[in-house]
Amino acid sequence: MSTTFHYKYPFLFYGERALASIIEEIPLDNLRNLISNIVSRKAWDRVSDDPLNIMLTVAILQRLQAKRLLSRYAVRLSKKIGSEIQRESTETVLNVARKIIDNRINVEDIQLRGVKTSLFKIPVPTYLRISQYFKSIKWKLVNQIVINGYVYVGRRDLIRLIEEMLKDAIINERIRLKLPDHIDLSDEYRRISQIERTFTEKIKMPKGKIRVDAFPPCMRELLSRAREGRNLSHTERFSLATFL
Known about the structure:
Blueprint: H1 3-8, H2 11-14, H3 16-23, H4 28-40, H5 51-63, H6 67-85, H7 90-100, E1 106-112, E2 115-123, H8 124-131, E3 145-147, E4 150-153, H9 155-171, H10 186-202, H11 217-227, H12 234-243
Antiparallel strand pairs: 1-2, 2-4, 3-4
């Protein structure tokens, strides 16, 4: 496994223990300064290359329940990790997939059009749970290779599944990075709350007599996700803009 990748994203492998072990070695004043700098510089607008910065940003946004900013950051972080893992070994990709998606994922050689091909195998229920978030027909189960209860996918598709599950795990705190309880974030809470309010105002609907409950269910869902700051596909954004 790549030592660099493992060092840069330790929370993928060790969860909250990765941050806790580092924080133990940092003097309290230094930690306070790091937290203050992350908020003042709006670290969630771009993903740093520093592993501590990444983990602290997630921990701060989770602790303060800044759902919109956390969602935006989770999208950026998952895309960055997905891009970087493309350059890693099959072993690293497999280990991350087992940690983030399902520990039953494996690699297997199968005959594909008469050629021995190495693919990743994912339990069908797990694949269906993730692929429901993808709108493209490409991800439908009928378009996959399914053998004995497993879906077989290539490296690129597995990494896309990792990105989606990682984003969801951060937003819904299945990957939970915690700051010590004695760290007071009152100042940061006020600043982030203001940023969240500003962000909400930017996506408010124009004033007028609009009955959202009269929208088709699919449009209500898209509008709700947009207001929460969640990532919409190009097709979804176009559909929502056209409808409105």
